[in-house]
Sequence to fold (698 residues):
Amino acid sequence: MVDTLTPVLTANWGAERSWTLASYEEHGGYAGLRTALGMAPDDVITAVKDSGLRGRGGAGFPTGMKWGFIPQDNPKPKYLVVNADESEPGTCKDIPLMMASPHTLVEGVIISSYAIRANKAFIYIRGEVLHVIRRVQAAVAEAYAAGHLGTDIHGSGYDLDIVVHAGAGAYICGEETALLEGLEGRRGQPRLRPPFPAVAGLYASPTVINNVESIASVPAIVANGADWFASMGTEKSKGFGIFSLSGHVTRPGQYEAPLGITLRELIDLAGGMRAGHELKFWTPGGSSTPLLTAEHLDLPLDFEGMAAAGTMLGTRALQLFDETTCVVRAVLRWTEFYKHESCGKCTPCREGTWWLVQTLARLEKGEGREEDLDLLLDQCDNILGRSFCALGDGATSPISSSIKFFRDEYLAHLTHGGCPFDPAASTVFATAGAQA
Amino acid sequence: MTLSQTTLDEMREIAGRYPEARSGLLPMLHLVQSTEGRVTPEGIEACAEILDISAAEVSGVATFYTMYKRRPVGDYHVGVCTNTLCAVMGGDQIFERLKDHLDVGNDETTEDGSITLEHVECNAACDYAPVMMVNWEFMDNMTPESAVSLVDDLRAGKEVTSTRGPRLCTWREAERVLAGFPDGRVDEGPGAGPASLVGLQIAQERGWSAPAVKASGATGTEPTGDGAQAASRTDTSVEAESAAVEAESGSDESAAEKKEAN
Fold:
C-alpha cells in the first residue's frame, strides 16, 4: 500500500539552501545522471516509456513515446525545449519547483537531452518570475562548473549546452508551437500541425517540448527504476504528481501524491474548507478544465477519472471556491482573461472570446435575457475545436460547465437585477459581518 | 537618445547564445528596457540592425508581449493579480484601493515616476492568494492595508524585501536579469514559502514517503553491453510509432498536444 502523500519532487524543498548544487547533491542529486550516462540513449527512452510517465503540462501524452517520435535518422540537430511558461490560471507547481530545486529540472534536462540525442536544450521560463529565473540561471552555471554540462560530460563523449530563455508575458506561449515561435524571436502564435515538433519544431528541426514537472520526474525514474515509478498511481495514470490547492481551503499549498488521490482526501489533509464554509465549485486542472462541484469529491484525480466526469486532469490546479463565490463573476473573469490572451490568429477564438465577454458581462450585470444562456452555448459551439490551438476550447470550458451546474445562479442575476453576492464575503480578509 | 556601445555589444552577445540570432530578440528587448526604461524607437532600430530584420518585424514582436512597455515605467512596476482566484480572494479590493491611493488608473505611472500600477494575470502563486508582484518578485498573501503600506514604503525609498525572494531591485535592474545578466541576488530569500511546504510537512509528520527502491535492477533495463543492437531494435519500433502518429494525425496526439496550452 502506497502512502497517501509521496514527496519526491518536493522532498528537498525545505532543505537549507535547497537551490544550490551542494544541497541537491547531498540529497542524492545527479545520481540519475550518472546512471543514465552508463546506459544507451534508447534504453533511457525505454525506461521512461516503461514507467508510464505522462506529460504533466496538462495533455497527459506519454513522455517516452513523445521522445520516441524523434527521427534519429534526420541529419538536423535535435533540440529539447522545456516549457516553463506556467500560466494556466490556478497552476502553481512548476514555479515553486524551479525556485526551490532548480537542479532537479537541470538534471532532468541533461538526461532527457541525452536520451533524444540533443546537444542543445532551452528552458523557456515566463518572464514574470524574476527570482525563479535567477535560480535556474545559477543552477545551469553551477552544473557547467561541476562538469554536468558542456563538452564530454563526465567522460561520456556527450556534449550539452543549456540556454535559459525568459519570455515576455503571453499565456499563449504555454502552447508548445507558440512557445517555439517566441523562442525563435517572433510573435507567439501557434503553428498548424502536422508537421509535429518531433519532426519539424525549433528551426524546423526535430524537437521535444516537455513540461517542467515531466522533465523533473525523469531523474527519479532513471535512478529508482520504471517499476518503482509505476508502483504509484493508477492503472493508466502512473506515478506521482504535485497537486496545487488554492482558494477557500484552510491550508492551501502543494501536495505531492500518487495520481488517483481524491479531492476529499486532499481537502482533509489541507484542514478542510475555511471554517464555517463549504465547497461550491472547483477546477481539477486550471481554468481550461470544466468545473466540478461537491458531487465530485470522491472521483480519482487521474486522467481517466476526470475524463469520465466530462473534464480533464489538466495541471492538477485545484482552485476551490466556497458558497460565498459568485460563479458568474468567476467565469466572467476567466473569460476576460481568454479574450485578452487570444493571440488573434484564428477568427473563431479572436472574435468568439470577445463575444463571450459581451454576453457574459451583460448577464452578470443583470441586463441580459434568459435566452442569452443559449446564445452563450451557441457561441461556445462555434469556438470549440475550430482553431489552431486549444486556447479557445479552454475559454468555453468554464462557461459550458457552469451553465450545466449553476443555471439557476445565472438566472438569479436577471431576477435580482445584478449580482446577488457580496464580493467582500469571498475575500480572505472578510469580516464576520461581511460573511453573514 | 542612442544606445551605448556597451548595450549594443551586449545585444550581440545575447544573439550569439542561440543557433539562430533572431532567437535573441525577446531578451534583447528586455535589455533595451533595462537601459531605456521602455522599448524605444531607437531600441527597435538597434534590434533590427543587429538581427538583419526590419524594424516593423521587431515592432510586431514588441507589441505582442505584455511585459514590453512603450511608455516609461516607474522604478517599481506594481502588479496586482485580478485573475479569478486572486480577485475572489481580495485582489479586486486591493487593486481598487491602490488605484485610489496612488491616484492612477491601470497601466499608469505616478507623477513622481516611482510606481507603475497594472493588474496582472495569474502569476503561478495561487496558494499565496491574493498575490501582488513588484518588479516581478512575489508579494504573497496581501491585503488592501498591506498593499498600501508596501507602495508607501517603495515611494519613501525604504528597502523592501519580497515575501518569498530577495530585496527588491528597480524595474530596470530586473529587466537586465531577464536579458540573461545575473545580478548576484540568487542566494537571497528562502528556497520555498510556507504554502509550498505544507504537503511535505504533513508527509514528514506522518512518516509518509514514496515506496523504497528495490535493491537490484534499479533501472528496469539491462546495462548497455549490446548498445548498438538495442538501438537498432528500438529504432524500428520508433519508426512504427511515428508512422502511426503521422497517419492518425489530428486524433490522438493533436488533441492531446493542443492541451499543452494548459
Observations:
- The CA atoms of residues 279 and 294 of chain A lie 6 Å apart.
